[in-house]
Amino acid sequence: GKTIASNNFLYIQPFRINQSAPLTNYYLAQVQLCLGEVALPFQSRHIADELALCQRYYWKYAQESGTTAIGYGFLASTTQVRATVPIPVTMRTTPTVKGSFVVRHGTTLSTVSNITAELKPNGINLTATLDSAGSTNAPAVIVVSGNILEFDAEL
Fold first, then answer.
1. In 16-85, which residue ranges form alpha helices assigned H by DSSP?
2. How far are the Cα atoms of 35, 47, 49, 51 from residue 44, in angstroms, in the given order?
3. In 3D, which of 109, 91, 80, 98 has the Cα closest to residue 153?
4. What is the sign of the dihedral through the CA atoms of 46, 52, 57 and 62?
5. Could you tell me if 103 and 109 are in contact, meaning their C-beta atoms sit under 8 angstroms apart?
């Protein structure tokens, strides 16, 4: 590997200086940055491990067509749902919920507002206000239909 000494730097220029030159693809792989005086041996990770580490910060569920149930819960009151959406790994902190979903309770499909999230191991408990009333303690299903639902726990 290459060690960059103090008062030196590495500069990568990902664009063409000569615009008349043919386009070129550059591939950068197996790069490891180490803080300190000693370069550590390269540490490769399995793609599944790398994905799990990334999913601690961000997870997205996208449903382009059709309807899919992604979480289950109950009506805590006539206009409030509490449900859990399973996630592949426990996120680093309580995420911000972005996007939209609907809730099926009985034969009613309700839109939601005032969504809050609570982080649990391998799941996110969602609480939201329904636009149409249902029966307290009735089963509820979180449904994504042609929407994107994101959980963002970035720094």
1. 47-55
2. 17, 9, 10, 13
3. 91
4. positive
5. yes
d(CA 121, CA 94): 11
Sign of the dihedral defined by the CA atoms of residues 67, 70, 75, 76, in that order: negative
Query: What are the pLDDT digits (tens) for 95-122?
Result: 999 888 899 999 999 999 999 999 998 8
Which strands form 58-62's sheet, in the order they lie side by side? 58-62, 148-152, 96-99
> In the structure, what pLDDT confidence band is assigned to residue 90 with cuts at 50, 70 and 90?
very high
Asked if residue 113 lies in contact with residue 100, where contact means CB atoms within 8 angstroms, the answer is no
Q: Which helix (H) or strand (E) holds 119?
A: strand 108-120
Task: Tell me which amino acid residue 136 is.
Answer: T
Structure tokens at 64: 């382009």
Calculate mean pLDDT across residues 4-13.
71
Report the number of secondary-structure helices (H) and strands (E) in the chain.
1, 9
Q: What is the pLDDT of residue 155?
A: 80
